[in-house]
Design brief:
Layout: H1 4-24, H2 30-56, H3 63-102
Helix pairs in contact: 1-2, 1-3
């Protein structure tokens, strides 16, 4: 059986990655979203290890681990809220841009423009 400190370390590493994602998402641009990927990958790896331990019963009754996972859950909610806000913000700008460039349809909504199709071939 693995010691609680090992599981606690995995949870802390997962949480550290999520906190970094939360910090980066304060300014949600495509570039910052791309910077989140390594932190999310590391956090997912740690959480998968923890999931296996929980399902096997090895992590049962570990109070410090439960507390850390509870804090991780809060951090994940905040990251989710930041992503939702970023999505709404960028969708609003996309709708505004559509209205400015294509006008409005009969229902008074921004009209959709025909997408510009391009092909890029390298090498």
């Amino acid at each position: 059986m693995v010691e609680e400190e090992v599981y606690l370390d995995w949870a802390r590493k997962a949480r550290a990655g999520i906190r970094e994602v939360r910090r980066v998402l304060v300014a949600p641009t495509p570039e910052t979203l791309a910077r989140c990927q390594p932190y999310l990958a590391e956090s997912i790896a740690r959480l998968k290890e923890l999931e296996e331990a929980v399902h096997s019963g090895q992590a049962r009754g570990m109070k410090k681990l439960c507390a850390e996972l509870s804090e991780l859950r809060k951090d994940l909610r905040q990251v989710g809220a930041l992503l939702n806000q970023a999505s709404a913000f960028h969708l609003g700008w996309a709708r505004l841009f559509a209205a400015m460039t294509a006008g409005y349809n009969r229902r008074g909504e921004p009209a959709c423009r025909e997408p510009i199709r391009r092909i890029s071939i390298r090498g």
